[in-house]
Fold each of these.
Amino acid sequence: MGEVALGGGDLFLVSMVAVIALLALAVAGGLVREVLAAGQGTPRMQQIALAVQEGASAYLKRQFRTVGVFVVLIPLLLLLLPAEGAGVRIGRSVFFVLGALFSGITGFAGMWLAVRGNVRVAAAARDAGERTAMRIAFRTGGVAGMFTVGLGLFGAALVVLVYRGDAPVVLEGFGFGAALLAMFMRVGGGIFTKAADVGADLVGKVEQGIPEDDPRNAATIADNVGDNVGDCAGMAADLFESYAVMLVAALILGGAAFGAQGMVFSLLVPMIGVVTAVIGIFAVTPRARDRSGMTAINRGFFLAAAISAVAVAVAAFLYLPSTFAELDGGVRVDADPRLVAIGAVLTGIVLAGAIQLLTGYFTETNRKPVQEVTQSARTGPATVILSGVALGLESAVYSTLLIAGAIYGAFLLGSGNTTVALFAVALAGTGLLTTVGVIVSMDTFGPVSDNAQGIAEMSGDVNGEAAAVLERLDAVGNTTKAITKGIAIATAVLAATALFGSFRTTVEAALEEASGDAQRAIGAAFLDFNLSVDQPNVLIGLLVGASVVFLFSGLAIMAVGRSAGRVVVEVREQFRTKPGIMDFSERPDYDRVVDLCTRDAQRELITPGLLAILTPIAVGFAFGYAPLGAFLAGAIAAGALMAVFLANSGGAWDNAKKVVEDGSLGGKGSEAHAATVIGDTVGDPFKDTAGPAINPLIKVMNLVSLLIAPAVVAAAGDAVLRAGVTIVVVAVLVAAVVASRHRGAATGAPLPRATRR
Amino acid sequence: MGEVALGGGDLFLVSMVAVIALLALAVAGGLVREVLAAGQGTPRMQQIALAVQEGASAYLKRQFRTVGVFVVLIPLLLLLLPAEGAGVRIGRSVFFVLGALFSGITGFAGMWLAVRGNVRVAAAARDAGERTAMRIAFRTGGVAGMFTVGLGLFGAALVVLVYRGDAPVVLEGFGFGAALLAMFMRVGGGIFTKAADVGADLVGKVEQGIPEDDPRNAATIADNVGDNVGDCAGMAADLFESYAVMLVAALILGGAAFGAQGMVFSLLVPMIGVVTAVIGIFAVTPRARDRSGMTAINRGFFLAAAISAVAVAVAAFLYLPSTFAELDGGVRVDADPRLVAIGAVLTGIVLAGAIQLLTGYFTETNRKPVQEVTQSARTGPATVILSGVALGLESAVYSTLLIAGAIYGAFLLGSGNTTVALFAVALAGTGLLTTVGVIVSMDTFGPVSDNAQGIAEMSGDVNGEAAAVLERLDAVGNTTKAITKGIAIATAVLAATALFGSFRTTVEAALEEASGDAQRAIGAAFLDFNLSVDQPNVLIGLLVGASVVFLFSGLAIMAVGRSAGRVVVEVREQFRTKPGIMDFSERPDYDRVVDLCTRDAQRELITPGLLAILTPIAVGFAFGYAPLGAFLAGAIAAGALMAVFLANSGGAWDNAKKVVEDGSLGGKGSEAHAATVIGDTVGDPFKDTAGPAINPLIKVMNLVSLLIAPAVVAAAGDAVLRAGVTIVVVAVLVAAVVASRHRGAATGAPLPRATRR
């Protein structure tokens, strides 16, 4: 694809895109100033907020130190992998680092402001009322949103400006860096937040009999830090990665299908998204007659979506020609490229809306599914679990069918040409993500109001109507969080589907170059690119790909359990060695628990992380390129279903608990409440640890496969090399899994007996 | 494949196989006589056993009436589908009925003797001691085992004798009939048994305060009937189906790869299995120095496996030539067919042993995984659920990797030829199933001893050491049941993988015949058979295939919940209208509850059943043959993982409860016990309803796809026909899903509040 030549006009447009991306960062700066200018409440509130800020920075320090090893090592390894031209190869490594850096910055920025916005939201609820509180919360989220789109778009535009026709290979590096860092932040953050949550509850509420969010509990700050670490930093990095990888896929395929205009148009769509996101974020200004906070958010979301749709149509008609023959490069198909582009982007925008409605139906408190889960609490926790599992399985299917429908729509737009079809899939992905700025803002909204509520309760300075305001904001945040997860996994499936095009191109080029030895090893049937799953060895790849998703989920759920046990031990120890904590004469060492959770989260994420990086290498070298392709397909299918299953089961249990707490079936303290609390606890690692990490997992495996594909084809004839790589990689994987199981046994401190909450 | 010509010697051997199959039925007759000759205990015991027998026959009556509709309708529909020659087409329909009939007879026979063996086992435990009790229990299971192998082998041999070279198409009908009936019996039996179980507990133990298995509870008999309906009839039909479909795959591929000798050898392997199963069953005669019942069972299993391995090797050397060139038909590969055949069968036998060990590790009470689940009960039910889910997910991966390893081993034996590789996969499947006679006997052992224990408790006539004997037998039964499920899903994956060969052959023939219109619609890329999953439309098939497994599981779990609610209403009503029940002056109407469960199970199985039959039709006609092939691959991957996940999570929870009941963590009545009871209740529909039904689900979808494949290819150019079929099929599916959700709302009788057991 090196033949795509960008003209002067094209480069000017790409420069424009880069400038607009930087403007998004300027908007973020403005939002930061606005949020920081708000009042910070009472000294007690500020003191608690400071502890959370300390904890968050302790976490980030450690997180970046661990991940730094990978960010240094992997670019060196990337240099060893074949690619055309030394310059491109170096560029790929450099942009890997940049992708990781941008992903980290997005997470950092989102979290940095979230731990400052939280106390200001609490103060506003106390001093200025609901509408101001909500505005601050949403503007806080807006910063993460602007960083996501600004840095993602800027990075992609920069690659195109510098590398032009060679951009695709360099973009793979950029996307891989972003996805890898996001996966670590998602898994690490997810383990941290749930370990702290469960650990704090077990010692504080159960053993010491002190309330939730009591400042005497050394794990309480960690619990509040966790909300930011998981839901802010992890989520922001994750959506940045979704955005970046989607752009990578669109740029690669845009060049192949539409030539130079395809690459530029792939940047114009998200550029429009940046502008409409700004409009959307500022549109979320609550009005007096809004029914709930969700009304204002929906106004912003659907406004941004509608303007995007119109603007994309206008851009397509202004910029794209009416026939494929007039394009600079790309394929020749008898269709109107403008209609293909508009249709694809609209498909994505409609998909975003459909997922929002579907997720809402299955997880909102006032709809039938959550009501049924709530009613099942009459017969105890077992029926709560069963109904939640059944709901999750069913909703995952509908969500997956929606995504499949969008892919099929895009496929039909391809008019029989696979390259055009795949570009249409990628464009649908960019369409889905035009609203990502608003979505990230919506999602960050959740932990910020959750934290605001925590600070309010801990300080005791926010009461009455102000506390009720924060309760309502928190409920809105729960809904937006579930929706974001649905959108995120849809981007993963679309990006992965589109990247099959790059995988094919890469493998085909390598097959042409392969030596006679390699060709004989690949076999005649597979010298034409072919991932036909009726071949037993290809089907094995599929089985392994689906297996990785199951193993990854199981490992993440187990890690939370182990880590929570260690939090219990640490907090107990602090109560023992600092007897003054209970009468407030000594301050617990919050940093120690935060550091423990951080260290644990880092250690626990190694095994799932290695799984993501190494399994494609093992499959590729052991079985060949076709099983590796099927491996990706298996991971996509199992991943889409598992991610939505985990997210929606968890969301439904959480909200069933809320319904009971609002007074149904006896309210707080009833047997039904105890049953739904159990459901919610089961759902915690489902929806906040394992489920959301599947999105970056799929991307990482995809990009690793793409990067190693040429090496896999070249090594086909070298049985010794293949066996060697396979044995080393499998040995490392087995050691990692065994080590993580062993950790469980070694630190198995006896946990306290749970009593009814 | 019509060109395979069986010579006179071949036909003589096949006749021999048929005779030996009939001898297996004669052995079954001998076992029946032996079991029935045993003593039946006290009059009270006999009265209870009679009630269970009445219930079982009430269930069977209804089950066969419902399923009868399908058994009449589908053969007529099959006549409409294209196939070479009217005789073959009629034969396919006739053998569909025969497959269904044999499947039904196997289930019926297994259950008929189980409901008579149960009381005799209880009586033997009371009057004759452990060894006699165990022998009767195992001989009772042996009848189901002998029926499974006898009827399966006889049916397959009959098809070959009558249709010779045309056998493959007719065999598809035979396999489809067997699989469809088995699926209905598995789903129906699974819903019945868990609805009765949960319903009986909720009214009896919770509301009325009467013990489990109290004869005053109208649902108690249904509960005991359920054990037989689910674990005997459903399981026997399921394993018969596995056996029959595996033979179908082996015969089809054997003809293609090895010519006439391939077909005959595919029958010789299971014939050897029949003989060794008889040896194995009679070898399970407990000895005085056996450590536990499991020792005797292992002796039978591994003896049968070892003799099979040796005998198969001898048969291969006696019957097969040393080069492919000497075979009557088949392909020409530079390898020794005898070594290929022996290697493949051994792979299957080793896989059976490996699954047995792996399943044992993850579900036995004295191994680390179940111990960890048990320890998690210290922190309450939520951690029990989480650790069980994590264990299930992880073990599913190892099991799937073992199966994948076996497929890869068989693939390598194919020496680069796909047809030989697929035949090797099928032969591995027959190897796996050489021990099926022993396995079915092992599995039936479970419900028989479970029932024996129930009858003993209800009658109050079996106490002390005799009761302890039955406890021990029940524990052995739990282990064997888990192993059987692992083996069953392995056969599903191997059979489905092998049947891809038939799918390919069928589609290729249809592609050649396709008209110009159809060819244009299929497109140049797909005129060569190709299921390459990088194509977006093919990938969609994969997504839908994996989705069906998730939806099917979710629907089955929901159905159990709904049905249990209706049992509660019925039993309450009987207590109200027959006040004499409580003082034993009136007899509850057991048949009404049994009939209700049966009727409900039949109604609830319609939706999952339609899902299995109609989804492949929708995918095939809407998207084409390649997405249909990928659909099967997606279902295989998701199905293998989901089936083992559900079975092993459920098995581990069940045994964690047993560990606590044996005195750990405070024993019965402790908080830890309550936590594990909740885990066990969640596990019930996992392991006994949704999980085991996935095996026949995969087969049914596979065979439906195979049968409609020619029609799908022929219809490629006819957009109106395709749209019409798709719309009708999807409408029926949506209506079925909506109706099953609506049923839940309409009969949502308020359930009682659960209290701690």
Amino acid sequence: MKSDIDICRDTRLTPIEHIAEQAGIQQQELTPQGTLKAKVKPAILKRLAEKAEGKLVVVTAITPTPLGEGKTVTTIGLAQGLAKINRSVMACIRQPSMGPVFGVKGGAAGGGYSQVAPMEKLNLHLTGDIHAVTAAHNLAAAALDARLYHESRLGYDEFTAKTGLPALRIDINNICWKRVMDHNDRALRMITIGQNEPGKTINGLERHDGFDITAASELMAILALADNLHDMRQRIGHIVVAYDLDGKPVTTEDLKVAGAMAVTMCEAIEPTLMQTLEGVPTLIHAGPFANIAHGNSSIIADKIALKLSDFVVTEGGFGSDMGFEKACNIKAQQANRGPDCAVVVATLRGLKANSGLYDLRPGQALPAAIFDEDNAALIAGFDNLKWHINNAAHYGVPVVVAINRFPQDTDAELELLQTMINNAAFTTHVDVAISEAFGKGGEGAIALAECVVKACQHQANFTPLYQLSQPLEEKIMTVAEAGYGASHVELSPLAQQQLAQFKAQGYDDLAICMAKTPLSISTDPSIKGAPTGFTVPIRELKLCAGAGFIYALCGNVMTMPGLPEKPAFMSLDIDESGNIIGLS
Amino acid sequence: MKSDIDICRDTRLTPIEHIAEQAGIQQQELTPQGTLKAKVKPAILKRLAEKAEGKLVVVTAITPTPLGEGKTVTTIGLAQGLAKINRSVMACIRQPSMGPVFGVKGGAAGGGYSQVAPMEKLNLHLTGDIHAVTAAHNLAAAALDARLYHESRLGYDEFTAKTGLPALRIDINNICWKRVMDHNDRALRMITIGQNEPGKTINGLERHDGFDITAASELMAILALADNLHDMRQRIGHIVVAYDLDGKPVTTEDLKVAGAMAVTMCEAIEPTLMQTLEGVPTLIHAGPFANIAHGNSSIIADKIALKLSDFVVTEGGFGSDMGFEKACNIKAQQANRGPDCAVVVATLRGLKANSGLYDLRPGQALPAAIFDEDNAALIAGFDNLKWHINNAAHYGVPVVVAINRFPQDTDAELELLQTMINNAAFTTHVDVAISEAFGKGGEGAIALAECVVKACQHQANFTPLYQLSQPLEEKIMTVAEAGYGASHVELSPLAQQQLAQFKAQGYDDLAICMAKTPLSISTDPSIKGAPTGFTVPIRELKLCAGAGFIYALCGNVMTMPGLPEKPAFMSLDIDESGNIIGLS
């Protein structure tokens, strides 16, 4: 089979204006950026306010191997499959970070014959939204260090006399806003800034700091959760960047930088319209992580797509314990709109990996044996799929299992898996289809599309796990126990103290975002399958007042990846004709 | 008078496709980014290869006050003036950095009725070129630290065994590639990276580092000097990022990251077409500093504009000792194309400032008295203007002095200045006109435009100060002595040692880029007027092998600005209708 970029380059694409027109977007609602991508103005929602909404299909997965199970391929493939059976459909996905593109994972445009095109535009820069988030985030950081410096240099009284601004009295030991960069750069995880030549102070105050990858910025979560430009502006102003010497929160509004941050992001709030290889209109918007953030593309993009088409296919990051849980408890509650159907992507290799019989490690290739026929492993791993189906059922949503077929998969094994699914008892509508979207595009996802149409005929009875009005600790317990099936939650003394602090500061009604490993339903990445009776240890809480959640760190979560020994960037170049080569 | 952004917003702009069509750019050579900006494909140069070139007018200035003398206003105004007298004309300017926009100086789109529009697009993001430079630059930095880490972690032999790549043996104490960010962030000037929790090493190797503002990146100079995409790719590969343990240069090609950097910048190489408030087509491209780099917009943009119009108006940063010298000795030699006319912008306040009778300090407002009538100061300051006229004459180029009129300027003073110019003897054609481009747009620059047309009828006899084939030390002497009028050059022991090293490494034929203060013709910012008999001390040399020059640090040059107590960002916001407010 051809490489992804070659498949993409050999496909005749449709001018984006035609894609937009077919989707029902009017010319004045579109800002083309070249011929194959265009910004869509959120003002379209006013025009379509009275129109009925389509069905929202959220693609999730079993507990993934470190390589992923093909959620984006299935999302794009399913959208193409729905188009093949003449349904009006749009897809909504996140914008890929350049970090993984240059690092290990490669692009995130789907793959094979189920891609968003042109993949080199999607994977690099696109329409600059991630750069805008980086710039706005780092502007706040520069504003903070500059304020710290000038207040210290002049003294609080003179600072106020000179500027007419109140002294913020920021506690240098209580700053919670790092800097960001859209690269995998481990050397920036822990740094010291504001250093000076001996005897000088012109570079500001020395302190510990660090960079996260841009996807981990609270601004990225805000972009994905904001309802409109005005809401984004307000949320940005609520961001707490530090605490003052009395322990009171210092916000970007206090720094008088929230307006400029919103200005920096005012084009980023418009989703970008692209197309799949088969011409299905696709909105690309935002790219929040699925651990320290909610891991779903934007509310604005979903809303636009739901007004324009009968089916909207989107995805949540990692397994259903991660992105899908957050789609239901964070995104859906803020958007006031839950999913109508969940698609759980499973692979034979992924289920076997969940048997616990294979030794899998992040950053390493999967063992070849995992592709051999192994009924015992498949049967053992099935528990994990069952767990994820039941998890979606918790939220009152019908489920379709999409078996993402790999070339090595045998018919016998595929049949065994289908039989197991069909024979199991569930509390919601459950169906299953094999997807060959990677190799065959929409044609390979027709069966899946038909199952999804059928599932959407079952009225979803969407219910989040908790209400925002419940106390923070209750919401944490609910996600861990009702959500994961844990038997206990253990808050560290630090987390307990932070909990009390956030409640006292009026943040009790924020949502809870669990930052845990995606490689297990529990918080221990080595525990595969469908564990029970485990404890969820919560080390630390972090406030994201602008995004509207508090994230709970369960173990270590890496917010700045590193480059491997032989990174993906080494194969990228420009050929004699000026084309990009080596992108996957 | 209205604010810049209000003037801009109240002007009816022409769709960029029409601007392009009028300029002679065909549809397939244009990639519109919305309706008011578009990328222009350098492939246009192939179609127009046989077409004759227009006249290249380079706008420069007297030794500026820290506020600048209005070069961009004059550049845009002159282009509009030429259009008013029915000349075919384009302007070429640099892309503004967001650092000054959020910091002190404000935007760089011109001002008043001589602006590039829409100014909020030009000043923020534009088409993402600066972000692309930032991303490509920091990718190389991440690649370097990752290589350092993995080679150290595995040992050289195991690294090679595992990856098949040679060990680069980078000397951690001899790294010359910092990181960059497009913000004024003094806290990042001197930092320590690669720090770890006690007993761990997963964040790489600890070392000193720092961030420059993106305009200071060698990649920005490369973007401005590259002839085409292929040339840019080759230049990127020549960048020296560090030295190995034997003192041999380590390039981005050695890191196998040059291809990915070029991929990251492959859209940035296309200039962006915009328009002035009066509809003159303007190419925006690159934004190198005028001290540690050559401070002019791109060769590609100039070449395209010269093929499309009879007059091309561009500008070099700071006074004629800085941007114009570099336009002649660096840019013109690489482009094989010198200017046909120099416009020297002078202001009454700037000449009085050059009298040495006023106490001016960067970051502080000019004293009000400088706008009062003061013939003595004007006469004393005239020496500086004379120096800059003669400097342009050195290069064999006719000169037009543009007196950028301020509302407070009296007719008597303006007349005195014109008389002094007309009565002085010069070795080149010299003319003078008053420009009221700020308040009156092109109408206010008709007299200037007529002078420029006349000057361009005088055949320029362009000659750079030195040939690239001369030895490095000779080129340094030539710029300091023949260029500035210095009597001596003093190389520090470090600079002498570096000179020997660069010669030994085969870099003797690179150009010389003087990194000195713009606030004096000498290297001491407090010496105003037209100093003679001074010494140019050279502290350090820095190799920019990809850009094709070595820059010589004469004193301290700040490559990362800081934010003031009350930065410009504080007035920026989004109003109820979603419009940007507070940008100037």
